[in-house]
Design brief:
The chain is an alpha+beta fold. About 25% of the residues lie in helices and about 35% in strands. The strands form three sheets. Strands 1, 2, 3, 4, 5, 6, 7 and 8 form an eight-stranded mixed beta sheet that branches. The protein has a two-stranded antiparallel sheet with strand order 9-10. It is globular, with a radius of gyration of 16 Å.
Length: about 200
């Protein structure tokens, strides 16, 4: 498989499946959308993530995808994800090629239903960080999330906010990726199956 075929393969896989939708019932859950931004840095595909500041309301200091809560004027989950990505890291919506939707997921600690959208972003890119929300950007190689990469055990126990959570854990550049972000990447790699292994062989 040639590397330039990879985004098309992702788009095809997402188009052939029906994403699992979680309906927020009874006002218990809030809704948010995130972008899973893929980019090609040289010969390697990477995922853009952010380290949240201590000034945000939820998930302080955690590693996350760009995204946020759905606002009344948003016409779709895609629009929410693109708007929030532009606000947080300066990626203009016109520069994102949407590849499809992943399964909805629940956060463990903040009662959000997250609607994930996968998109291709050109690279290099002139990112512009919102210092109120984002401490720094991480460009995490997809190889980190492969079995045998630099991922941790299948699950670990993480202490957060006085509670213990069992979650997949990945480590990169001194940071711990856990919770909804780690579960989304675990699901993404599972969806790609052997295709992501072929990509790793090409690098």
């Amino acid at each position: 498989m040639r590397q330039d075929e990879f985004p098309g393969i992702i788009q095809g896989l997402l188009a052939r499946r029906q994403p699992m939708v979680i309906e927020p019932k009874g006002g218990r859950y809030r809704e948010a959308a995130v972008l899973i931004p893929l980019l090609k840095d040289g010969n390697e595909y990477k995922v853009l993530m952010t380290k949240r500041t201590e000034r945000v309301e939820e998930h302080k200091g955690q590693i996350s995808f760009p995204g946020g809560g759905i606002e009344p004027g948003d016409r779709s989950f895609k629009e929410t994800a693109l708007r929030e990505t532009y606000e947080e890291v300066g990626i203009h919506p016109r520069d994102v090629t949407i590849l499809g939707r992943m399964d909805d997921i629940l956060t463990l600690s903040s009662n959000f239903v997250i609607h994930p959208v996968v998109g291709r972003v050109p690279y290099p890119y002139d990112f512009s960080i919102n210092p109120l929300e984002v401490e720094r950007i991480l460009l995490v190689p997809l190889s980190v999330f492969l079995p045998g990469g630099s991922r941790g055990p299948e699950t670990e126990r993480i202490s957060w906010g006085g509670k213990i959570y069992e979650t997949p854990v990945y480590r990169y550049d001194g940071e711990i990726i856990w919770g909804a972000t780690a579960r989304l990447m675990h699901g993404f790699v599972e969806m790609l199956g052997e295709k992501i292994g072929l990509l790793a062989e090409d690098q």
